[in-house]
Amino acid sequence: SHIQPLISLQRLEVAYGGIRAVRGIDLHVNAGERVCLIGANGAGKSTTLRAITGLVPLVGGAVEYDSRSIAGSPPFDLVRRGLIMVPEGRGIFGQLTIEENLAMGAYTRRDASQIRQDTERVFTLFPRLAERRKQAAGTLSGGEQQMVAMGRAMIARPKLLLLDEPSMGLAPLMVEKVFEVVRTIASEGVTILLIEQNARLALENSDRGYVMESGEIILDGDARDMLNNPKVRAAYLGEV
Ligand code: ATP
């Protein structure tokens, strides 16, 4: 097709010592798409995201973002070009206040009044954070910390948002709230690549999906088709 993907992984390979965690996968996300990568513990999902953001080196293959190779790009360049990750474990600075954590999202920006507006918008989306803006982030609940991490990502003005297990460890109501915000962000045109162990939640919030097993993509397709696929239902949605 004539559509240029916003990001594409080509024959991507990553290894830790002798262990090949990612074994030559192809994956792409078009501009404006919401795509999920699902799979069991240890399948290689997080490693794939780490390779995109340069936290682990590639053994083989290529990563192109916005039509350019980004292998070896410093994090600052990726952030400035709109490639923003919300990491597993959230990457919150526990000693800093909520406001200070959010301000970290703006470190590549110079437009102070726009930054203030974006920060207020995060507080409007997450009123719980507004009430606690001067509080140390380390004292927040897991769900509130997830909100801070997502708020910080939004303030970085993402083009492509990489979400690593946003539902991890959260109570059902908090998961619902987090995904409501993911939908809001997506509706504003941000492209999303989501990693989730909760396959149903991921597919219900995506246009397309990929299934990873032992470092390989074993299935991909339209998210709705995948929700109806008997193999996916049996293996990943806990149905017989
Ligand atoms: P999870 O949801 O449990 O994080 P995952 O699909 O994200 O699973 P990865 O974390 O990418 O899987 O792990 C893929 C494989 O790589 C696993 O076998 C894991 O043990 C191994 N691995 C991950 N990180 C490292 C590391 N820093 N050093 C060595 N091996 C690692």
Automatic annotation (TrEMBL):
<dbReference type="InterPro" id="IPR030660">
    <property type="entry name" value="ABC_branched_ATPase_LivF/BraG"/>
</dbReference>
<keyword id="KW-1003">Cell membrane</keyword>
<keyword id="KW-0029">Amino-acid transport</keyword>
<dbReference type="InterPro" id="IPR017871">
    <property type="entry name" value="ABC_transporter-like_CS"/>
</dbReference>
<keyword id="KW-0472">Membrane</keyword>
<dbReference type="InterPro" id="IPR032823">
    <property type="entry name" value="BCA_ABC_TP_C"/>
</dbReference>
<dbReference type="InterPro" id="IPR003439">
    <property type="entry name" value="ABC_transporter-like_ATP-bd"/>
</dbReference>
<dbReference type="InterPro" id="IPR052156">
    <property type="entry name" value="BCAA_Transport_ATP-bd_LivF"/>
</dbReference>
<dbReference type="Pfam" id="PF00005">
    <property type="entry name" value="ABC_tran"/>
</dbReference>
<dbReference type="InterPro" id="IPR027417">
    <property type="entry name" value="P-loop_NTPase"/>
</dbReference>
<dbReference type="Pfam" id="PF12399">
    <property type="entry name" value="BCA_ABC_TP_C"/>
</dbReference>
<keyword id="KW-0067">ATP-binding</keyword>
<protein>
    <submittedName>
        <fullName>ABC transporter ATP-binding protein</fullName>
    </submittedName>
</protein>
<keyword id="KW-0813">Transport</keyword>
<comment type="similarity">
    <text>Belongs to the ABC transporter superfamily.</text>
</comment>
<keyword id="KW-0547">Nucleotide-binding</keyword>
<dbReference type="GO" id="GO:0005524">
    <property type="term" value="F:ATP binding"/>
</dbReference>
<dbReference type="InterPro" id="IPR003593">
    <property type="entry name" value="AAA+_ATPase"/>
</dbReference>
<feature type="domain" description="ABC transporter">
    <location>
        <begin position="7"/>
        <end position="239"/>
    </location>
</feature>
